[in-house]
Every structure is written in C-alpha cells, then in structure tokens.
Design brief:
Blueprint lengths: L2 H28 L7 H19 L2 H25 L4 H19 L25 H5 L4 H19 L1 H11 L1 H6 L4 H27 L11 H11 L4 H15 L1 H7 L6 H5 L1 H14 L2 H7 L15
Helix pairs in contact: 1-6, 1-9, 1-10, 1-11, 2-3, 2-4, 2-9, 2-10, 3-4, 3-9, 6-7, 10-11, 10-14, 11-14
Length: 308
C-alpha cells in the first residue's frame, strides 16, 4: 500500500470502532438514557471476544459472545438506572469502572496473545480500482455492515413507528406512557441494543482492528463514542462523519512516523482526545442548537407517577 492508500484504508477501519459504539449510544440517548458506561462495555466485550475467538478459532462465535456480553453489562446499568431510578450519570460511571476491572480479569490469561485477523472481502471490479480499491473496497465485512447498520438506524429513528416510540420516550416519557407506550420496556430495549453494538465494537477492536489482547486496549474509545453523539448533535449522518474524522485523527501517529516527522509520540497519541475536547467546546457554545436536537428528557429518571 502507498501512504495515501494506507491512510484512507486505516481511517475506515479505525472509524468502525467509534461508529459502532456511537450508534448504540445514539439509540440509548434517543430513549432518554445517558449511558456513560460505554467504555466498560467495550472493554468487557473486547476481552470476551478475544478469548472466545482465540479458543474457538471463530470470529463469528467471538463476535456473538462479545455482543451478548455487551448486552449483559448494559442491563446492569439499565436495571439500576431504570428500575431503581438511580442517577444515570453516576450509574454509567460505576458500570464503566466495573467493566474495565472485569476486562482485566477476563483477559488476564491471554495477555499479549494474538489471533489471526479476519481477511477483507473482494468486491469484483471495485476492489481492482487503483488507489480506491485498496482504500475502500478490500475491508473486512464488519466495516460495511457497520455502515449498513448506521443507515438502518437513521431510517428507523426517522421513519418507523419503533423510531417514533423511542423518540417519544426520550422527549416526554409521561406523554409517551399516556399514549400506551411502555417507557421502561422501550428504554430497556434501547440500552440493550446500545450494549450489543458496544459489544461488537469491542470485539472488532480486539480481534480485527488490533488482533491481540492487552489490558487497557480500548484506551478511551468508549468516551469518544459518547462524545461523538454530542458532536453529531444526535443525527446519524453527522455521527458517521464524526466517526471518520476521529478515525482519521487516530492515525496521526502512524502517518507522522511513516513520513519521518519528529513530533513527540505522546502528543500524537493524545490528538483524538484533544480534538474531542476542542470540538465539544466549540459545539457547546451554541446552546440553542444542542437543545434543538437533544432528547428533552435525556438523563431524567421516570417512575410513571405523573402519568397515573
């Protein structure tokens, strides 16, 4: 690969981790649930996905079990925040910390081991196009499925009754319950779906993007995914663009090294987080725009008393 091909291909791969987790968080937040435990869910699923893939030799089995793990961890958050009405921010942080600890325990016996990454698919004609073929049309199937999931989520939230129900619960849960929607059931489902995609993101990170296990390998990607939802102002298309922007920024260290630039590696490694802070600071200056698209009841507990 040329440097340009590597940069473009690497951007698509790196963005997939962010995009999967951010899409799951988007659905959860649209239902009014602010889940800050994404980092922990990804970490647990990365460990589980790697261990299962290493022991079975099957990426499909690894992804499946990782997705289930993400759902289970997300249901811990949902149970405490929805059923017991605990503060969503504190619950999310606690679940995130729990997930990081569990991931270290689960992957302890597989530290520094590697698995064989699943190969890319060959798309006739398109894969043979100079520059564009290696950059865009020779990736693992998960990259393309993630884009398909993004389109499906965007359509569902905007044009289907299920999407209307999710948005209604996130905007005004009392009114939604008065119309016959089960607020708790919809929120549980949205959070579980977010956990499923976070699980897939973790498995992709540990078995395909970087096919090895090392404690702490998620390295803040879950937090960036949460920030991406705000960055994209809760719009699917903008979140996709944001994911590819952050995927591009995350390759800065490798690109700089390939070009021989004498920039401290620590600075380059921190660039995605610096960009996250700067972008969120800029976006937050326009409070009216944020309120326009943010779910009105985001982060608010619901006990149903006002609608009885």
């Amino acid at each position: 690969m040329t440097t340009i091909e590597f940069f473009l291909a690497g951007t698509m791969s790196a963005a997939t981790v962010f995009l999967l987790a951010a899409l799951g968080e988007l659905v959860a937040e649209k239902s009014g649930m602010l889940n800050l435990g994404v980092e922990g869910m990804m970490a647990v699923s990365a460990a589980v996905g790697f261990v299962v893939t290493y022991e079975t030799g099957s990426h499909i089995v690894g992804f499946t079990v990782a997705g289930i793990s993400g759902v289970l961890v997300s249901l811990i958050y949902a149970g405490v925040a929805i059923t017991f009405l605990a503060n969503q921010v504190a619950t999310g942080l606690a679940v995130g910390i729990l997930g990081l600890g569990l991931s270290a325990l689960i992957g302890r016996q597989h530290e520094s081991l590697t698995v064989e990454a699943a190969g890319g698919i060959y798309i006739p004609i398109l894969s043979d196009i100079p520059l564009l073929g290696p950059a865009f049309f020779q990736h693992n199937i998960v990259v393309y499925l993630t884009l398909a999931i993004a389109v499906a989520i965007g359509y569902c939230l905007k044009h289907t009754r299920l999407g209307l129900a999710i948005r209604s619960v996130g905007e005004n849960p009392n009114a939604a319950q008065a119309l016959g929607y089960s607020v708790h059931l919809i929120r549980y489902g949205a959070v579980a779906f977010g956990g499923l995609l976070a699980g897939f993101a973790g498995a992709y990170a540990s078995t395909i993007y970087t096919p090895l296990w090392a404690d702490g390998m998620i390295a803040g990607r879950g937090w960036i995914a949460v920030a991406l939802v705000v960055f994209g102002t809760w719009k699917t298309g903008r979140i996709i663009l944001g994911a590819y922007l952050f995927g591009m920024v995350s390759l800065g260290e490798l690109i700089a090294q390939s070009l021989g630039a004498s920039i401290p590696s620590q600075l380059l490694s921190s660039m995605p987080y610096i960009v996250t802070i700067v972008v969120l600071a800029i976006i937050s200056t326009n409070a009216a725009r944020l309120k326009l698209h943010a779910p009105f009841a985001l982060g608010e507990s619901f006990d149903g008393s006002e609608s009885k």
